[in-house]
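User: Second chain of the day. Same drill as before.
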Amino acid sequence: MDDTNISELARVALAIEAEEAKEAGALGYMARVLTQATLPHRSQSSLQFMRRNGAFVLSITALSPAGLPYGSIPRLLLSWMTTEAIRTQQPVLELGPTLSAFMAELGLTRCGGKKGDITRLRDQMKRLLCSAISCHYEDARHDCGVGFNIADRYDLWWNPKQPNQLPLWKSTVTLGASFFKEITERPIPIDLRALKALKRSPLALDIYCWLTYRMSYLRKETEIPWSALQLQFGTDYERTIDFKRCFLKQLKFAQSIYDCAKVEEGKQGLILKPSPSHIAPKSSPKRVLDADAPPPAPALAPPLLKTATYEKARQAAPGFDVYALEQDWRDWIGRKGETPKNPDSAFVGFCRRKAQPRTTTKK
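Assistant: Same format as last time:
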């Protein structure tokens, strides 16, 4: 991505401001776990890849000789899978009537050849669908984790030489059960127009999704060291100064879309300031209601937590991401339909229960 694309990004930004993603039919989702740590940006010689975000570690393993997924296309595919799984609430996803139709959904062009989008899409789909992901938190006092295959099965029936031709059978992907649960229970709302506008740079895509997630729960100004960001986003760089230079360049592209994100360079790292989410809270995913169902209850005013509460929460749940726990807690009290009388104590208690191992008491 270069400076010649700034005018196009500005056009997309204005369109997003003029019409909310949901109203424009561009509301999408990305799995939260894949905004905390990211896929490779470039081709990898190894069949396993790992990135770290504090106590959180994400590993992806290639289960076939095709190798690991990398670049923008797997990110677009993962967003499409997450969005479609939430829309249908089904693990079996249909990829569109034709190759052309599916590529249009991803913002790709119907060009063949060795470096064309058709060839790249087919290669990256095989890499992504034949991969397994492992996520775990680790520190001196606590270990926990989960692993899942992205797909249990896939059947693709497209003819790249005739992308508009209707196939005899539907092309489908059956998501792994654990992966389906992860992406539908913990999604991050995003604007699909932003992804398509930033698709030339996988790093810009990662920054946009990460900022959207972080700003959804950021309560106070935070400076993240460049070394920590390098572990999370850019292990391809040997020197932190090279990573920093590239990150700041791609940050400008992400901010040209998400211009209300208050981010600036600090002395030791990147400074994040509380900012409006890029997607309005009312765009959060909801299951389709029956026509005769009663209207939903009015949304509760979100309780504010004291700064000291977050430190108490860290002590109650060592090794956990307290901001992720906060989002889970807010979702939980939202489903209950009532605000705790003492939100600070309630949140700390929630964290303590989450950190305790489940045991079965025999009588």
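The two ends are 64 Å apart (CA to CA).

User: Great, on to the next one.
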